[in-house]
Amino acid sequence: MNRFVIAGALALAAGGQALAADLPPPMAPPPRAPATYVPAPVPIFTWSGIYVGINGGYAFGTATSSLGGGNVTPNGFLAGATLGGNYQFGNFVVGVEGDGDWTNLDGTTGTVGAGAEVKSNWLATVRGRAGYAWDRVLFYGTAGGAFGNVQAGANGGPFTSGSQAGWTAGAGIEAAFAPNWTAKVEYLYVDFADLSCTAGGCGAGTVNLTENLVRAGINYKFSW
Hints:
- By secondary structure, the chain is mainly beta.
- The protein has one domain (49-221): Porin (Beta Barrel).
- The chain has one helix and nine strands, in the order αβββββββββ.
- The protein has one helix spanning 2-22, and strands spanning 49-65, 75-89, 92-108, 116-134, 137-154, 159-178, 181-192, 195-196, 206-221.
- An eight-stranded antiparallel beta barrel has the order 1-2-3-4-5-6-7-9.
- The longest helix is centred in the first third of the chain and has 21 residues, at 2-22.
- It starts with a helix and ends with a strand.
């Protein structure tokens, strides 16, 4: 009897192994998909904040006068510093800006000792600004007060010198090229009050100096 039980068990075991050998191998799990790359969000630029900067450019003007030799057309370079602040709401930007520049504006008519000469060696403006921001590019208009030194007299001197007030207006474009840095190009028209010239060889003439400024600048904006 035992021999039949053992033979049956062996037969069942052999049959089970044969069935197991006929079964397909287990399926491997599907490979994992690669992780999706999600770029870091680009910070939203804002024009709001206080800024400081430098500027430089070229000025050319006209000095209408009752001096001998007719009108004078002084010109020269300028360079200086800028301080301002902006506030942005939506796409609109408003602000205030002031600057002070050294200039070497100079122009003459006639020969030394005859004709006229008009010079200016500094210029400052205090202006309001208003514009439209297209993301990191700002288109703006500007207007305000202007102050500068005006010197007039006979060609070669002596000169009458005065600090004259006036007005200025213009427009420009400014662009952010880094998180806190912007660059701008602008045009300003400046009109000073008349200077009464009393220097020797100047007579009792008056001089009205107007300037056209084309300048560029770089500003650093402090975080708001």
